[in-house]
Amino acid sequence: MLKKMKAASEDAPSAAPKDLSKSVLESSRQIWLAGLGAFSRAQQEGTKVFETLVKQGEALESRTKRTAIDTAAAAGTAAKAKAKEVQAMAGGTWDKLEQVFEARVARALSKLGVQTHDDVEKLAARVDALSEAVNDLIKTTGVKPKPRPPAAGVGKAQKSAKR
Questions:
Q1: pTM exceeds cut of 0.90
Q2: CA gap 78, 60 in Å, rounded
C-alpha cells in the first residue's frame, strides 16, 4: 500500500496535499479493514485450531500414560528381581553367620563343662536302654532289687513336700 502511495506521489509531484491526505486516509482504512478481516478469520479458524490442538494433546497424553505405565512395570519387575537376589545373598550370609555363632557358643560351653542338648539326649537314651535291660533282667530272674536310699538332695525335697 505504501508503495502505491509513493508511486502516486512520484508520478504527480504537483498533486495537491488534499489528494495526499485522502490517499493516506484511504490507506489507513484499508489497513484497518485488513486487521478486522484477519481478526475475523482468526476467530473462525481459531476454534478449529483449538479443537485440533486438544485432540493432539489427548493423543499425546494417552501415549505418554501408556509409556509411563510400561516403564513403571518394567522398573517394578527389575526391582523385585534385584530384591530377591539381594535377599538370597543376605539369607546365605545370615545362615553362615548363625552357624559360626552356634559353633563358637558350643565351643565356649564345652570349655566350661556345660552339656549340650545332644549330650543330654544321648545320656537319656542310655538311661532308657539301661532301664529296659534292668527290667528284662528282673523279669527273667524274678529277683526284686533292694530299694536304694534316696540321693541327698532328693530326700530333702521329698520330706519337705510331705510336710
A1: no
A2: 27
Cell readout for 108 is 565356649
CA 19/CA 127 separation, integer angstroms: 139
Using alpha carbons, select from 54, 55, 34, 28 the residue that is nearest to residue 42. Answer: 34
Contacts of 5 (CB under 8 A, 6+ apart): 20, 23, 24, 27
pLDDT one-digit tens code per residue, 52-72: 888 989 999 999 999 999 999
| 3-44 pLDDT tens trace | 665 665 565 555 566 788 888 888 898 998 888 888 888 887
Residues 6 or more apart whose Cβ sits within 8 Å of residue 27: 1, 2, 4, 5
Nearest partner of 25 among 1, 52, 53, judged by Cα? 1
Buried b (16+ CB within 10 A) or exposed e, 111-127: eeeeeeeeeeeeeeeee
- End-to-end CA distance of the chain: give it in Å, rounded: 133
**Residue 162, SS3 per DSSP:** helix
